[in-house]
């Protein structure tokens, strides 16, 4: 394989990997529609339709019960018993000390509603009142704190008392125990339900890198949908885009770093639905982005119709997670509450079998060094050490190919009118010299998936978010804040106002220099066209990576430098071996 084929093979391999990730239909989206019980479907339809009206009619003042837990703070809305106000104490919107805390739940009347409701679906067999979004609950405590549950009570005045016992752990997991006490003289039937509602459409992320939107594991299968597909697939009258039956599981709505999910009892048969209810308020389309207004819904409903007889009590429980997608914490909850594949809330992608172990190593190194940047550098060093034999083989192969360039050129010129004969002569030359043209490609092809999975880890995991390095890099998840076009801050203006491409910091420049150095040490001999193209590559990649997270740029810079050092060491050994052979030949 000559240099042109080598370059094309490498380029095609990279493009193939990205194309596979982007174009292949995700197994999570290959949904199969299943039918639920007729009565339950009617109840779900009724609840979805009326809940939208309840939102519009909720004009009474909010009645708040404060939440003061170890990792979160906020409040419960006693009007409707909603979890609709929650911020994370350990995370801020920016790296500035006075920046706002990250908000994961917000009320119906806010610009970006995002809340959780739990309760009971009233059976059409009943003629009694159930709590709704306007029901005002009574609390037995002044606030909800870690280790101290609060009991909410609502009485319908017809012999039914509804209770919710809500507790929260030291992190982001709520437990909600729901009880119905029947003191009337008639049996009452109902279903339990829980639902995450999001009344706005976030700016959707790059789907092939990270999933955001409805997500869940139902019947041990990861199910994901985009906001767009939910809007398009939701049909009247029940506004459900997708549904599936299973036992236990979990489901919710995810962002890049945050998740709000409901977790039913894992031994119960449930039905999960993803849906979208269009807004009845005009205008129904957001003028800024042209996206239809409405509420996204992810809900769990018990499939078994529960009946509470006179004088009896029926209780069920579930959990609500609302917080940061810290992998170790998701694993902890998965083991403690037997939540299937809870770690998949972090989008490790199709290559999770490789991406996840790489993250585990990175996370351990971060714990060891106490600095994610150092963890990144040491991981790259480990990878280089593991693949050193392959790199050495690749470099030797490229060196042999370089030595054969004059003879290869001669064959091309001699047999330029007979392609088949030219290929035969080339293969004969390779056999004669003991050269395998594919041996130079294989080491690169093997390493490409590892580098891609590392890139994925750095992009989707929260552990690098706002993680400092050294010097001016205070956030590895953000671009290098310096800029050559304003002399790194000496000139008082922002060049990106003119064009986003006018943002090139110090680390992207370091990356460009290391890439140029690596090219200079490459033993491959390029034809004039390839040579000109390769000369522009450091400049092109410097501009492209300038707007990427600084952690990625630092990683690629360090990787280029280590590759250059590897090439120097291997070249030195090859030269020493060659000189030793010449000396032996001279003595002979």
From TrEMBL:
HAMAP family: YidC_type1
Pfam families the record matches: 60KD_IMP, YidC_periplas
NCBIfam families (UniProt xref): PRK01318.1-4, yidC_nterm, yidC_oxa1_cterm
Keyword set, alphabetical order: Cell membrane, Chaperone, Membrane, Protein transport, Transmembrane, Transmembrane helix, Transport
Localization: Cell inner membrane; Cell membrane
Primary location recorded for the protein, binned into one broad class: membrane
Subunit structure as annotated in this protein's UniProt entry: Interacts with the Sec translocase complex via SecD. Specifically interacts with transmembrane segments of nascent integral membrane proteins during membrane integration.
Entry's transmembrane regions: 6-24, 342-362, 368-391, 435-455, 497-517, 538-558
Domain Membrane insertase YidC/Oxa/ALB C-terminal: 372-572
Source superkingdom: Bacteria
Membrane topology: Multi-pass membrane protein
Protein name: Membrane protein insertase YidC
PANTHER family for this protein: CYTOCHROME C OXIDASE ASSEMBLY PROTEIN COX18, MITOCHONDRIAL (PTHR12428:SF65), OXA1 (PTHR12428)
Function: Required for the insertion and/or proper folding and/or complex formation of integral membrane proteins into the membrane. Involved in integration of membrane proteins that insert both dependently and independently of the Sec translocase complex, as well as at least some lipoproteins. Aids folding of multispanning membrane proteins.
CDD domains, per the entry: 5TM_YidC_Alb3 (cd20070), EcYidC-like_peri (cd19961)
InterPro entries: Membr_insert_YidC, Membr_insert_YidC_N, YidC/ALB3/OXA1/COX18, YidC/Oxa/ALB_C, YidC_ALB_C, YidC_periplasmic_sf
Protein family according to the UniProt entry: Belongs to the OXA1/ALB3/YidC family. Type 1 subfamily.
């Amino acid at each position: 394989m000559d240099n042109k084929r080598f370059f094309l093979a490498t380029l095609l391999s990279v493009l193939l990997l990205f194309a596979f990730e982007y174009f292949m239909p995700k197994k999570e989206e290959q949904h199969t529609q299943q039918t639920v019980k007729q009565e339950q479907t009617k109840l779900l339809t009724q609840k979805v339709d009326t809940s939208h009206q309840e939102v519009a009619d909720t004009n009474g003042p909010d009645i708040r019960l404060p939440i003061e837990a170890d990792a979160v703070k906020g409040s419960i809305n006693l009007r409707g018993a909603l979890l609709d106000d929650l911020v994370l104490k350990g995370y801020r919107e920016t790296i500035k000390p006075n920046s706002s805390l990250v908000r994961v739940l917000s009320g119906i009347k806010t610009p970006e509603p995002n809340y959780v409701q739990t309760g009971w679906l009233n059976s059409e067999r009943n003629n009694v009142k159930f709590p709704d979004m306007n029901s005002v609950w009574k609390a037995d405590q002044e606030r909800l704190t870690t280790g101290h549950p609060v009991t909410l009570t609502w009485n319908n005045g017809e012999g039914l008392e509804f209770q919710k016992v809500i507790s929260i752990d030291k992190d982001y997991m709520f437990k909600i125990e729901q009880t119905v006490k029947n003191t009337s003289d008639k049996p009452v039937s109902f279903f339990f339900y829980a639902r995450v509602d999001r009344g706005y459409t976030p700016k959707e992320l790059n789907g092939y890198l990270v999933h955001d939107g409805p997500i869940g594991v139902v019947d041990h299968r990861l199910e994901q949908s985009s906001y767009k597909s939910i809007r398009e697939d939701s049909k009247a009258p029940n506004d459900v885009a997708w549904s599936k039956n299973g036992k236990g599981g979990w489901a919710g709505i995810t962002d890049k770093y945050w998740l709000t999910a409901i977790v039913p009892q894992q031994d119960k048969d449930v039905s999960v639905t993803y849906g979208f209810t269009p807004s009845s308020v005009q205008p129904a389309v957001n003028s800024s982005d042209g996206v239809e207004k409405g509420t996204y819904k992810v809900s769990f409903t018990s499939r078994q119709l529960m009946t509470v007889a006179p004088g009896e009590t029926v209780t069920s429980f579930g959990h609500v997670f609302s917080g940061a997608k810290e992998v170790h914490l998701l694993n902890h909850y998965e083991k403690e509450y037997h939540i299937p594949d809870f770690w998949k809330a972090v989008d490790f992608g199709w290559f999770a079998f490789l991406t996840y172990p790489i993250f585990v190593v990175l996370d351990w190194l971060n714990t060891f060094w106490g600095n994610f940047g150092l963890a990144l550098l040491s991981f790259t060093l480990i990878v280089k050490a593991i693949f050193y034999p392959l790199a050495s083989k690749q470099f030797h192969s490229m060196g042999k190919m370089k030595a054969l360039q004059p003879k290869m050129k001669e064959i091309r010129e001699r047999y330029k009118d007979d392609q088949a004969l030219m290929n035969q002569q080339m293969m004969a030359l390779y056999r004669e010299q003991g050269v395998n043209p594919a041996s130079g490609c294989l080491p690169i092809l093997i390493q490409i998936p590892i580098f891609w999975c590392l890139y994925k880890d750095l992009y989707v995991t929260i552990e690098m978010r706002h993680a400092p390095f050294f010097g001016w890099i205070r956030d590895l998840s953000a671009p290098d804040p310096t800029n050559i076009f304003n002399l790194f801050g000496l000139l008082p203006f922002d060049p990106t106002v003119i064009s986003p491409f006018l943002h090139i910091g110090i680390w992207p420049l370091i990356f460009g220099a290391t890439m140029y150095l690596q090219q200079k040490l490459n033993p491959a001999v390029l034809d004039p066209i390839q040579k000109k193209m390769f000369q522009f590559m450091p400049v092109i990649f410097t501009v492209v990576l300038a707007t990427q997270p600084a952690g990625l740029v630092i990683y690629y810079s360090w990787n280029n430098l280590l590759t250059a050092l590897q090439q120097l060491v291997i070249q030195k050994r090859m030269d020493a071996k060659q000189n030793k052979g010449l000396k032996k030949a001279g003595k002979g």
